[in-house]
Each structure stands twice: as C-alpha cells, then as structure tokens.
Amino acid sequence: SHLQPPTSQMEEVSLLRGSNCRAKGAAPGFKVAILGASGGIGQPLSLLMKMNPLVSALHLYDVVNTPGVTADISHMNTGAVVRGFLGQPQLENALCGMDLVIIPAGVPRKPGMTRDDLFNINAGIVRTLCEGIAKCCPNAIVNVISNPVNSTVPIAAEVFKKAGTYDPKRLLGVTTLDVVRANTFVGEVLGLDPRDVNIPVVGGHAGVTILPLLSQVNPPSSFTPEEISYLTSRVQNGGTEVVEAKAGAGSATLSMAYAAAKFADACLRGMRGDAGIVECSYVASQVTELPFFASKVRLGRHGIEEILPLGPLNEFERAGLEKAKKELGQSIQKGVSFINK
Ligand code: NAI
After folding, report:
1. Where does the Lactate/malate dehydrogenase N-terminal domain lie (predicted)?
2. Is 40 annotated as ligand-binding?
C-alpha cells in the first residue's frame, strides 16, 4: 500500500527468492495493536512492544503520522512484524485478528487541568475505538490508558455490552504508572532499589482515588506519619508533577510507556499460561460496592483470572478509601451515562 513502499520492495525481493521472508522470519507469538501509536505515549510504547519477544505482529494505528512511526520502528531487528494503519477507514484492518489491544489515544492534560477535564474529547475517541474492537477482535484483551481512566473503562464496558461482546475479564484499565511511582518514591525513602519494592495501589487513577497501600509494602517496612503523608500525596499527584514540569507540553509519556509495556507484558505472559502473574489494574470488580475498582488481579490465558481482596487496611487507608469511593462512583456514573444517554 502507499503506507509501506519499502515493504513492497521487500516482497519483490522475497518473490525473487521464491520465499516469503516475512512469514519465514515471523516469530510465534501474540498479535498486538496500539491505538494512538503516534502520540507521546504511543511512540515509546510502540518501541518497547517491538522489543517484546512475545509479540509476533505489531499493528500501529493513529489518525496522524503512522507511516513515519511504522517505517522507523520496522527497522529494528526484533521478531515482531510491524504494520501501520492511518485514519478511521483503516481502523478495522488494524484490529483484525488482534490478541491484545492497547489504547493510549486521546488528549493529555495541560497545567491546571484535571483528568476529568479530558472527558469530553477522550470519551468519544474511546467509544469509537471500542466499537471497532467489538466488531473486529471481540475476544482481544483490552488495556485502556486514555484518561480519565476512571470513566473510560466504564465507557468501554458499555460499548461492549451494547455490541453483545462484553467480557469483564478482558477489559483492564492501566494503573501501573501509579504502582511504578509508588515503588520509586518508597524506594527513595527506604533507601532500597525500587525494583525490590512492591506497593499495591488500589482505587482508581485520579487524585484522591489513587490509594497507595503503604501498610502492605513489600519488603515489610514501617513509615512515620510524615512519610505516609508525603508518599501518599506524591503518588496521588505524580501525574500533576509531570504536567507542571512539562509546562503545557503534555503529561507523563516516557514513564507511562514503560508502565504500559510492563503491564502489557504481564498480560501476554498470563495469556501464554505463566503462573502467578499479579498486577494492579482498574477492572469490573466486587471488591467494593462500586462496579469498577483497581486492585491486585491475577492474569491468565483469558485475561483476569482472579481479583484479589484488598487485604487489611489501617485507619488512614480506610479513610482514604471512603474518599476515593465517593469520587470514583461519580466518574463511573459519568462514563456509563455517556453511552446510555
Ligand atoms: P498525545 O496527544 O501525545 O497522543 C495522543 C495520540 O492519540 C495522538 O497521536 C493523536 O493523534 C491520537 N489520537 C487522537 N484521536 C484519535 C483517534 N480517534 N484514534 C486514534 N488515535 C487518536 O497524548 P499522550 O501524552 O500520548 O496521552 C494519551 C492519553 O493517555 C491521554 O488521554 C492521557 O491523559 C493518558 N494518560 C494516561 C495515563 C495512565 O496512567 N493511564 C498516564 C499518562 C497519560
């Protein structure tokens, strides 16, 4: 196609050889699509997924710039075969046959904005993309990054329900960056390598709905009240810290791409059948009375295999949970009514 002249040259060469280099070189693995692949998150995320040995085909979709991003990334000598798709008319081809779809499409925050301020634009984008998923790869596992995640995941669920394809086990909101931040900041305070620290972060993905459970830190450690207050606030406002530092140029993209690639890799390892894959994610849940909630989930061949209980909370965390639930309930309702209005 016009998108990939180098590919057709390559196909001509492989015809001369009487073989299809592409098929021959293609590693066994999963087919992954990234929707919003040309963006601040999308580009480094595409790079990281091209490096993932579990990926055999990588489809890069956006409404702008995918020919360039695809040509660039396709030169990496890793196993995944990369194809680019540009604009709405190519959405269905981008999605056809995918095992995992990652959605970082949509506008990011500027200083002074909350994630909810993005609702009006991003809700419609997520709806359109999920309609495509329901039509073309209804069994794919879906990772939603687009903000406000607290509302876009319920939006995706409603779109899938309408299409008759909804399986709550396959729809996951990406909150990994909150865990990545918590592990980093706690590592700094405790003087530990952040790779050796693990903090569950539950609730949702905006302000007070982000609840780091410091009492459950691994390795077990205790914190002073000052440390608890500093760490909780730094994790809850980590996104805003980056938005302000970027001063109008966007929100977290590099750490987010890292977090999204880490989460997608966990999904793929679960899909492959690895045991004991546990990550925090914002999912349809019965952990609280709310229909969606982020907590630890065990990932398996078909997505979520088990939602783990919250575990014991201290008084500070119980108070945080009550605050979180109030805001979360409203964000969920807003997402649901967007589709059912
Ligand atoms: P960006 O503006 O750099 O990139 C977004 C990309 O989406 C652009 O390339 C744009 O062309 C594309 N896009 C717009 N409409 C589209 C459509 N209808 N179909 C396909 N692609 C479309 O934004 P950035 O920084 O990459 O952020 C993307 C989203 O991720 C934002 O909503 C942001 O708030 C969210 N985010 C989520 C985080 C999380 O922890 N879940 C953390 C950081 C950002």
Report:
1. 31-173
2. yes
